[in-house]
Amino acid sequence: MFKNYCTIIFRNLWRNKLFTAVNIISLGVGIASIVWGIQNYRYCFSYNNFHKEGKNIFRVLTKAAGNDNRKGICPATLALAVKNDFSVVKDALRWDSRGLNVKADQSEPFESQAHFTDPQFFDFFNFPLVRGTIRLNDLSTVLITQKAAKKFFGDTDPIGKTLMFYSDESFRKPLTVTGILKDPPVNSSFQFELITNTNNQVKLDGTRVKDDDWAWFADAVFVKLSNPANAAQLSDGLKKYLPLEQ
Prior knowledge:
Blueprint: H1 2-15, H2 17-44, E1 57-59, E2 62-63, E3 70-71, E4 74-75, H3 78-85, E5 89-104, E6 110-117, H4 121-124, E7 129-132, E8 141-145, H5 146-153, E9 162-165, E10 173-181, E11 194-197, E12 217-218, E13 220-225, H6 231-237, H7 242-245
């Protein structure tokens, strides 16, 4: 009986080839679209979900007067102020970047994007160390990714080697590579090759950015809260700094 049913079905499908082809193709496209949509949804919501402290970490956003659009940049010194002024803040850090020329040994300098942050960066975020040590509290050191290691040193072991930051400036600064980090995943908001202490960042004239300079905006300021429920309270409290930014 079942065999007869199948025979009738295939005969009808074969008799109406065009109708059959259109429906099969349409069904295939529909299923593929559903799978693509689900995978795209999963990918979008996978961003930064590998950070263990993610639920307690918040980025401070700013708005310009007369404009409701939020921006990620923030006065760098805010990270230092909130730790002293708000008990709900467990810790805070600065994250900034700058394009500069970086040179390794006798090689030609590379135009690179260097990132500057505080030593507690790796207490906030989880980026695995492949080899070496993390010593961001030491201003003479730099961490590089696997991609950067290949870029600057080829097949040579980069640990203990020197990278010259600001290599085309009079205020050039040699930094020792102490560790190699795994390349950040594509679903990470942080994309970097070189990480060093925030105090290694200088202005265009070579002078250091002062900790109390409210006019200097970092790419981001992050705060870690003891309780995520205190985020709204902190947001209101940050308004007290508005006169200092003007």
